[in-house]
Write a structure and sequence with these properties.
The chain has 9 helices and 14 strands. By secondary structure, the protein is α/β, with parallel strands linked by helices. The strands form 4 sheets. It has a 7-stranded mixed sheet with strand order 2-10-9-8-5-3-4, with helices on both faces. Bound molecules: 4'-deoxy-4'-aminopyridoxal-5'-phosphate (PMP).
Amino acid sequence: MGSPGPTHNFAAGPATMPPEVLERARASLVDWRGLGHSLLEAPFTCDEFRALMDTTRNQIRTALALPDHYHILFFQGGASAQFSLIPLNLLPPHATAGYVETGHWSARAIEEGQRYGPALVVASSRDTGFDRIPPVSQWTLTEKIRYCHITPNETANGVQFQSDPDCGSIPLVADMTSEFLSRPIDFQHYGMIYAGTQKNLGPTGLVIAIIRDDLLGNARPETPTVFNYQLQLEQHNRINTPLMFAIYLTHLMLDWLETQGGVKAVHIRNRSQSQSVYRVIDEDDFYRCPAISEHRSIMNVCFGIKDAHLTQRFLAEASASGLANLAGHSHSGGLRASLYNAQPDLAVTALTSFMDDFRRRYG
Ligand code: PMP
């Protein structure tokens, strides 16, 4: 039996990418920019790749209206590597870093960060099951804190900061992995933001790190050279071989983002898509959403079924209807629909119709 139609992919990352981007990527595997071979076979020192790195950085700067005193760097090792590299680069020995604990990924950042110095949890929603974002007025910020680490969108828990918090003179360091380029950012509060690109930009392994000028140059001596922010900046991010194909895919996704009207336009679409799924969840008590309504994520809609026995049936029937990868994160369980920038409206309509129908049949 053939498939019932196109598969809509709700994976939390690596996530769905626009077909036109994949087509362009395919073409680059035959002959990239007239070199007569693919990008995969090109030396990273060639003029074409140098130009591509510059273009990609400029695209990020333009898309986010990033002020000049922030630098953009590409790293390998995924967002998880930055949990260690941030204190190594920004935190002098024995100095204190602040952390806001709002779910699985901020907890992972704390776990790693505390290996490099005191990690002070200035606020946490652990007691309420990571169902909300503690208001900044309740954070226990003290002068000894060098920077305050936040995870504005918790991929596994489905909660999201609704605005960029203001910590006064304490710079924010934000893991924006699952919301990067999905909304405009008010940079004045941030010392650094970083994001793995496998959500809104597609490729895995690549991290985009954006660092404010005055925070650079403080790396501990034991920091690996290839992960030293200042040294990579000085050497044009070419101390070692960059993730060339991932940077190329990021460039293609940024081209695509521009055709969609940029971050402001996709933010409106992201909000509207998530609202239509939350509307179905909130209709009665068949479905449940663990996050309080004010702090729900527009990227990762985490939900469950009141009768948890129906979860596996929901997943099996969804998959048979061409709705793939709706299982929740392994730590949270339940269900999750990830609605990153490239998620088409068509997929969201297919999902909400399926959810309505499933409720009619089993409610
Ligand atoms: N932070 C957040 C918010 C994430 O969602 C993820 C991945 N799901 C990570 C960090 C870890 O990313 P990586 O696998 O690239 O290390």
